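Page 42, continued from yesterday. The earlier attempt failed because a stray header line got pasted into the input along with the sequence. Redoing it now with the clean sequence only.
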Amino acid sequence: MSDIQDEKSEKRGLNFVEEIVERDLSEGKNDGRIQTRFPPEPNGYLHIGHAKAICMDFGIAEKYGGVCNLRFDDTNPQKEDQEYVDSILEDIKWLGFKWGHVYYASDYFQKLWDFAVRLIKEGKAYVDEQTSEQIAEQKGTPTEPGRPSPYRDRPIEESLDLFNKMNKGEVPEGSMVLRAKIDMANPNMHFRDPVIYRIINRRHHRTGDKWKAYPMYDFAHGQSDYFEGVTHSICTLEFVPHRPLYDYFIDELKKGKDLNDHRPRQYEFNRLNLTYTVMSKRKLHALVDEQLVKGWDDPRMPTLCGLRRRGYSPESIRNFINMIGYTKYDALNDYAMLEAAAREDLNKRATRVSAVLHPLKLTITNYPEGQTEQMQAINNPEDPDFGTHEITFSRELWIEREDFMEDAPKKYFRLTPGKEVRLKNAYIIKCTGCRKGDDGQVEEVYAEYDPESRSGLPGADRKVKGTLHWLSRGHAVKAEVRLYDRLFSVENPSADERDFRELLNPDSLEVLTDCYVEPFAANQTAGSYLQFQRIGYFTPDKCTAPEHPVYNRTVNLKDTWAKKKD
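This time it went through. C-alpha cells are written below.
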C-alpha cells in the first residue's frame, strides 16, 4: 500500500490491515467472508507481544462480522506441553476475546504427510542426509546462489522409502530431512530447497507416538490456513520473506484450481517491542527455569499472566495496543506508555483505600481515649455508583513516615510542628511536637484536632494546604506489600551484547513486611483493583488472605521512572 493510501487510512481511523480487509470485502473476495486465526505455539506462556497479535486477529474478525479461530501450532513436541495450551486459552479469555473453533496443526498431520508424499512422487521433494550445518553452508548467501545437494536427484522410490523410515523411527533423529526441490539460485533464500520435514523422537502431547517425522512451520502453516478456510493470515514482519513460500505451497497443494478469489493471503505488521523488557521465549524460559524470577506469572514478567497478577486490567492492555497502533516498520515502544494506559484505566475502576507502607505513630492528644468514629470514605470519585465504605477513626493513628518533617522547608505542606493539615475524610489537626528514640529517629508525632472541622459537617470546609491519609492503629491490619519495577536496568536489553542475565534490575522487587491497611482493603480478593490513596495502584496477590493480606504494586500514581533516570 502506498504512503498516500496509508494517510487516507489514518484519516478514516483505520489501520492498514483494516483498509485491506475493506477493499477485499468491496471486491467480493472469498465470497465476502472474513476469517482470521491466532496460531500460537504451545511452548510457553503468552506475553504482551502476543496480545498485539490477538487484538489484531480477533479484532479484525469482530469488527467485520467474521470469525477468528484459535490454532495451536503443535509441530514440535520437544518444547510443547498441555500446560501451555491451558494457559493460552485462559489468557485469550481474560483479554475478552472469543474464538470460533479450536484447531491444532496436528489435526492435519495426515493431510500434510499425504501432500509431502505427493511432492516426492512428482519429483518436487527429496530426502537429504546432509547435516544441518552442511545444508546451511550449501545454501549459499543472499548474493551467491546455492549449490545442489548431492541427494537432490536421488530416485523417487528411494526418497519415499527413506521418508517412511523417518516416520517409523528406523533412522536416528537428525540423520535426514525431507526438502522441497524448488530453486537453489532463487534470490529468496527460503526458496533454496527448504526443509519441510524433520525427525523428532519425542512423544506428542496429542498424537502420542504415531508420528516421528514432523512438518516444519513453513510447510504446515499455509496449508493449515487453507484447510480451515482462513481468508486473512496476519502475522509479524519477520514473515515477509516467507510469504512467497507460503503462496508457493498453497499453489502446489491445490494445483490446477483457480484460487485467486478463494485463498488465504498473508499480511504482516510490526511486532511489539517494549523498553526494559525481553520478548524472546528462550530468554523468558531461562528466567523461569533458572529461578531468576518466581515463575511465568511473576509480576515482573511481560507475560499476560504476570501482568494480570500485577494488577493490569485486560482493558488497559487493549488500550495500550490501540495507543501504539499497527505499522509496517519495527519500533521500540516506551514502557511508560504501558504504565500510562494502566493509570488511565485503573483511575476509572480502582477502589480507593487507605494503606500506610512506612508507618509512623500519630497521637491526637485532645481526642478522647477509647472513643472511635466511623468516617465515610468514597470508593471511587470518578463514579458515584461505586458507593462508600466506612473507616474507623481513633486517637492513635498511623501515617506515612514521609508525611512528617520536624524541620521542614517553606513549601512543605505535610505535617510539621505548628502547621495544620487535614486527615482525609476526618479532621483538621495541628502538629504540637514529636518524640524521638535513642537513635534520634522520630518514633511518634503529637497533634491536636479541631472538633468542628470534621469532613462533611457544615462550616467544616476551611482550607488547609495539605491532606494526609491515615489508619487507626487499633483497627489496621498488618500487610505485606511488594513493590515491583522494571525487570531490566537497560532500555533495550535485546540489543545489548552482554548476557541478558547481567542486565537484570537488582531493584525490580522490594518487599515491605511492616505495612498496614484498613480492614476493608484486607478483605479484597485477588484480581481486585485498588488505589492506595496518595501512593499508587495495587492488587491483592493470589496468596493474599484476610489475616495476612499481600499486595502487588501495579503502577505508581505518576511516572517516577523518568526522574530516576535523570
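Notes: The chain has 15 helices and 27 strands.
Reminder to self: strip header lines before submitting.
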